[in-house]
Please model this.
Amino acid sequence: MPKPFKDIDLKKRAEIPQAVITRLPRYYRYLRQLVDKGEYRISSLALSRLMGTTASQIRQDLNYFGGFGQQGYGYNTKNLCECIADILGNNNCYNTVIIGAGNLGKAIATSSSFAHTGMFLKCLFDVKPELVGQKVNGCEIKHLDEMEEFWASNRVDVAILTLPSDAAVKVAHKLAELGIMGIWNFSEAELGLDPEKVAVRDVHLVDSFMTLCFDIKTIENNI
Amino acid sequence: MPKPFKDIDLKKRAEIPQAVITRLPRYYRYLRQLVDKGEYRISSLALSRLMGTTASQIRQDLNYFGGFGQQGYGYNTKNLCECIADILGNNNCYNTVIIGAGNLGKAIATSSSFAHTGMFLKCLFDVKPELVGQKVNGCEIKHLDEMEEFWASNRVDVAILTLPSDAAVKVAHKLAELGIMGIWNFSEAELGLDPEKVAVRDVHLVDSFMTLCFDIKTIENNI
Model:
């Protein structure tokens, strides 16, 4: 399987526009669905129609990684799907902990949607005594005070913060000290970590709901 | 309080770039924090530094709504905050139901983060007999079969889909028939509704995690 993206030099990787990076998982989703349906080949035009985008957008995006299509053939869906997973890093295994074992933490811990992302849940942490010792999807909930001890005997790559905002910043800085590589932040706090050392993605669910309200108001105004 | 955005004609509202709309909630968040801290005035430069963006970006974005700053004064944080909420439609009240009362549905139902968005939770629905009749944050979980009956005596504006993907499309089309205005879709299914009739925002948590993996890989490559 050719992996032309191996040719990108490391500097360029950091220069890829955010908009392109955030579109890659969407390509991956559609391609996976095609593979699951047994469709092993698709033209950029057909893919663009399916995704509600343009063929030139797709070609342009994938050209950041060396392109993948073949003139007159289109894309090999399985190959492209695996290449995108490789570009994104989802063929790796990320030892993950969830900090905050409330409903949201449990929702992520029990979701099957992350099976293809490399997320490998090791443990949940919380401060509530009634939660400590419980198991979620086979993983123990430990007390937050046991975090350092856990680190001493486990490699942890990614932490998912599903705890209240006021506690999130302090925990995030502790995680950075412990050498965490990535934080998926569901709290509303800005963590303020060094982006060259710790990758952080914030999920602002409230922002998403607010934009939905905008869309509703726009439709209402047009009716 | 001047509300210059009232002057935008309705056609223009639909023409505002998505990127601008998705940035508005972020402005709102920072401005609310300033108001909460008692800071009633800020220059576009100071705001841009706080937000890690540029002053010209802020001015450009807000100009879609008629601009709000005053030369030599900057922005009145409280006024701008309220104006953005008004533009987004978050000063309205949206009667909301959650369909899927699992961990994610419960997480949203019990979150205090939506207090300022206009979300007013009326009811949760699920198909699991053991959930039906339970209360979450004061709201009853009803059986999905009772949905139409509920609609007959309640106005519902927004539905939050936190149910499995395979059921989501069918439920979404039923909701559209019942006249729903907006759907906040956490399932991985593409709902395929008429965007002129029903506003839909998809939340793809998996996509967000995948981009975090990309960032981690980029940092790893640079070390």
Observations:
- Chain A touches chain B through 61 residues (CB under 8 Å).
- The first strand of chain A starts at residue 41 and ends at 42.
